[in-house]
Each structure stands twice: as C-alpha cells, then as structure tokens.
Write a structure and sequence with these properties.
The chain has 305 residues and is α+β, with helices and mostly antiparallel strands. It folds into two domains: 7-34 and 125-295, Up-down Bundle (Multidrug efflux transporter AcrB transmembrane fold), CATH 1.20.1640; 42-121, Alpha-Beta Plaits, CATH 3.30.70. Helices cover 70% and strands 10% of the residues. α3 crosses α4. The radius of gyration is 25 Å and the shape is elongated. The chain crosses the membrane at residues 12-33, 129-149, 156-178, 184-205, 238-256, 262-288.
C-alpha cells in the first residue's frame, strides 16, 4: 500500500477544487468578466511619430488614463530603422474629450506626430463567433468521449471531459475573481490548456488500462490499482508540467505587457491540468466504476430473489 493514498482522499481533492470554482461561479454571476476590446469594440489610433519612441513609452502615457491594457504595436515600416516610428493603439471606446486629452499627453511627452488613422471599431469577436467557438468546443468533447470510449471505456471518456470542465472553470474563476482582461488570445489559451490536460490524463488512463489486466487476474483492490498507476506516471507528469511551467513563466516575465494575460491563463491552466489529471480525473473514474459496480450487484441480487 502506498504511504500517501491519493484515491482515498478523493473528497479532499474535490473540496479543494470547489474552494476555487464556487467563488469563481459566484463572481461570474455577480461581476462577470473584464472583457477586452476584442469583445467590446473600441477606438483605433495610428500615429507616426517624428522621433524614436518605444511601445513602453506609449504604454506609460496611456497608463495615466487607465489605458495601459490597450493593444499597442508598431505598424507600417516600423521594422525599417530609417522609417519614422508608426504606432497603432487599440483601446476601449473613448469619449471625445478623453481622446483629445490622451492625444495631447502623447504629443507633450513623446513629441510631435502625424495622425494616420483615428476611428471607432466594433468587436472583432461577436456573439456569433463566441457561439461558434462554444459549439466547436462541445463537438471536440463529444469526439474525445467517443475516441476514449473506443480506446478505453465510456467511464474513461466521461472522466476526461469532467476533468477538462474542471480546468476551464478554474481558469474562468481566476480571471473573474482577479478581473484580468479577456481578449481573443484568452480563447487560444483555453484551447491550448484543453489539449495539454487531455494528453496528461490519457497517459494515466492508459496505465490504468494496462494494470487492469493484472487486476482481474489477481483480484487486487481498485483503489490500489489506480494509486499504482498514478505513481508509475507521476515522474513523467511532474517533469512535463515543470518544463511547460518554466517556459510559460519565462513568457509571462519577459514577454512584455501584450503577452502577460495570455501567459497567465496558460500558467493557471497548465497547473490546473496537471492537478486534475492526477487528483480529479482518476478519482472520478473510480467513483463512476464503484457506482456502476454497486448498481450491477444490486441488479444481480434483485434478479436472484
């Protein structure tokens, strides 16, 4: 018997997850999300400065107006060292007076510029695109259930999907509680997290399937079998998540403001994915299996009467 019984402490792992998910759901219902301009629309301003400026300089000016989360990037011939720096700023929808104040501050602190473009734009990700993304996610989950059920069994497929739902709820909860902005890159981060999490889960499930053959021959305990399978793959899981987290943390720390929210979502999601693969997915499979066995025994006892 393993010194630390993971399956025996299933209720603890479920409670730990609920401690994050339940406040997150409450936050989602009350204050919602801090939707970025990709979802809400905004203002685009494109400026050609007469002297060299950096994106950090522009962001510093916008920070005075609470607009430091705006998308700021070089455009045009910015890659050409001899060309005048052209900067495109996409911010939330600005009122006329606020826009003029921002433009005046940019000129005062960074020098003169020519206005190349100044317009209001709609959301790039409307309700229809969001619904399409949700349908695509639902379809992928159905395909995962079918594939995992074919390769393993139906209970494995259900456990995998519930673990993925757990990971997504964790990320959504953290972003709602912290009110970090959500933009189109957040959707890409969620899809990346789903791909990572299901891969790690399948590795453990594959080892459980292999050990099940010995289990039926020797009549071993199912909890011991799952614990053994988890510990046999634990080193791989730890190495994988550490490598991914180190890389993602480097992106978060050195990648600049434009990638912080994307990399933060990955950090939360990868950690949640590793946690769910070890402490959520496999225990859920044990719960489902025990429930099925209990129903089968009850049916057999009723038929024998």
């Amino acid at each position: 018997m393993h010194k630390f019984d993971i399956v025996k402490r299933t209720k603890i792992w479920f409670i730990l997850s609920l401690c994050v998910i339940l406040p997150g759901i409450f936050s989602m219902c009350t204050q919602g999300f801090n939707l970025g301009i990709d979802f809400t629309g905004g203002t685009i301003i494109e400026l050609r400065f007469q002297k060299e400026v950096t994106l950090a300089d522009v962001r510093g000016v916008l920070r005075e107006y609470g607009l430091d989360n705006s998308t700021i990037q070089f455009s045009g011939d910015a890659a050409n060292a001899e060309a005048a720096p052209t900067v495109m700023v996409r911010s939330v929808d600005l009122e006329e007076e606020e826009r003029k104040a921002v433009m005046a501050s940019l000129k005062q602190q960074l020098g003169d510029y020519d206005v190349l473009r100044e317009e209001k734009v709609g959301a790039t990700m409307g309700a229809e695109l969001i619904m399409n993304a949700l349908w695509a996610l639902a379809l992928s989950w159905v395909m995962i259930v079918l594939y995992v059920s074919y390769r393993f069994e139906f209970r494995f497929g259900i456990s995998s999907i519930l673990a993925l739902v757990h990971d997504i709820l964790i990320v959504l909860s953290v972003f709602s509680l912290t009110q970090r902005p959500i933009d189109s890159s957040f959707v890409a981060a969620l899809l990346t997290i789903v791909g990572y999490s299901i891969n790690d889960t399948i590795v453990i499930f594959d080892r459980i399937r292999e050990n099940l053959k010995l289990h039926f021959r020797r009549g071993g305990d199912i909890n011991e079998l799952v614990n053994t399978s988890i510990y046999q793959t634990l080193t791989r899981s730890i190495y994988t998540v550490c490598t991914v987290l180190f890389t993602t943390f480097a992106l978060y720390w050195f990648g600049g403001d434009t990638t912080k929210d994307f990399s933060f979502a990955l950090l939360v999601g990868f950690f949640a994915g590793c946690y769910s693969s070890i402490f959520i997915a496999s225990p859920i499979w044990v719960v489902l299996r025990n429930f099925s066995e209990k129903r089968r025994r009850a049916g057999s006892a009723a038929a024998a009467k």
